[in-house]
């Protein structure tokens, strides 16, 4: 999910504890602030710190003026071959094709388990807003490259990755016991930082400093972030350091999908409102939780979903993963 969804989820978790709401009414928002901070902390560590220290065995930097999709495909195939001779994961970084301050050459990487190969296809020049520049599509005969891989592959994410603006994607190639090479998208993301064990370890100092109530709020806010991420494609390493690999996500949504993010933010707003309302001694209006959610969440969200379906039913086919949109580190 996007950062704003994790942020407000942490606030909503804090509001579920009566002592947090009572403190806020006494002009002490510390628990709400703590929930917000821990709600976004796993991605903050990943995107603002860890990824800059992550080390790769190999990187691919295509020539932006004369991009060669075949050369990119061949280099990816070489990385897969190198993973067969290495113990552990072989880490590959693929850089973007930046043409100017506001223009980038888009390309797509598609792993094909059935044909045991990888295809790289050049796309149009796009702006930083990801809008195609008219007349910038490459010629068809020079737009694709294909390379056969040295071993069968197993996808742990999605087969197609779109690369265009800002930072490029990373892949981890690792051979399993069956001789297949598992392909891990963004191996540095949602690894040890997205662990319930780490959440407990980080909450412990908060408990020692601010009291056990603060520790509970911090841990629950950290945990809700991780559990929300399990709804997506990438999953998380829930019990690092006792486990080494990410568990597969449920594939219910993508982190950049508008409707799940909007629904999460709106539900959390309703939950915060309810948790504040329920401790008012003599409210002017009286209603229950179910009534609030029915009229304040289900009805407007259902109307939005219906309008979205009617207006977009002709273009409901999902686009391939867009790296810049899928990472979800921004608000």
UniProtKB/TrEMBL annotation:
Keywords: Membrane, Transmembrane, Transmembrane helix. The chain crosses the membrane at residues 32-50, 261-280, 292-311. It holds the Pfam family YdjM. InterPro entries: YdjM-like (IPR007404). This is Metal-dependent hydrolase. It comes from Pontiella desulfatans. The lineage of its organism: Bacteria, Pseudomonadati, Kiritimatiellota, Kiritimatiellia, Kiritimatiellales.
């Amino acid at each position: 999910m996007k950062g704003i969804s994790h942020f407000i989820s942490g606030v909503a978790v804090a509001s579920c504890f009566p002592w947090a709401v009572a403190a806020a009414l006494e002009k002490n928002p510390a628990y709400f602030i703590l929930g917000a901070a821990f709600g976004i902390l796993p991605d903050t560590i990943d995107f603002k710190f860890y990824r800059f220290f992550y080390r790769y065995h190999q990187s691919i930097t295509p020539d932006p003026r004369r991009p060669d999709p075949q050369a990119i495909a061949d280099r990816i195939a070489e990385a897969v071959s190198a993973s067969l001779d290495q113990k552990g994961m072989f880490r590959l970084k693929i850089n973007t094709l930046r043409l100017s301050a506001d223009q980038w050459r888009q390309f797509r990487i598609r792993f094909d388990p059935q044909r045991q190969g990888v295809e790289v296809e050049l796309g149009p020049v796009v702006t930083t807003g990801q809008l195609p520049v008219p007349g910038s599509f490459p010629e068809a005969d020079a737009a694709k490259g294909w390379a056969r891989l040295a071993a069968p592959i197993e996808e742990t994410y999605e087969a197609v990755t779109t690369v265009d603006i800002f930072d490029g994607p990373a892949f981890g190639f690792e051979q399993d016991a069956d001789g297949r090479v598992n392909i891990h998208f963004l191996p540095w993301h949602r690894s040890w930082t997205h662990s319930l064990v780490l959440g407990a370890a980080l909450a412990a100092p908060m408990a020692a400093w601010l009291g056990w109530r603060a520790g509970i709020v911090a841990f629950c806010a950290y945990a809700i972030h991780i559990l929300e991420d399990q709804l997506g494609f990438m999953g998380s390493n829930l019990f690092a350091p006792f486990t080494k690999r990410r568990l597969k996500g449920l594939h219910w949504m993508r982190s950049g999908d508008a409707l799940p993010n909007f629904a999460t933010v709106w539900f959390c707003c309703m939950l915060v409102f309810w948790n504040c309302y329920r401790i008012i001694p003599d409210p002017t209006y009286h209603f229950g939780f179910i009534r609030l959610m029915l009229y304040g969440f289900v009805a407007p969200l259902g109307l939005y979903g219906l309008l979205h379906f009617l207006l977009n039913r002709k273009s409901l086919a999902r686009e391939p993963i867009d790296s810049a949109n899928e990472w979800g580190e921004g608000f």
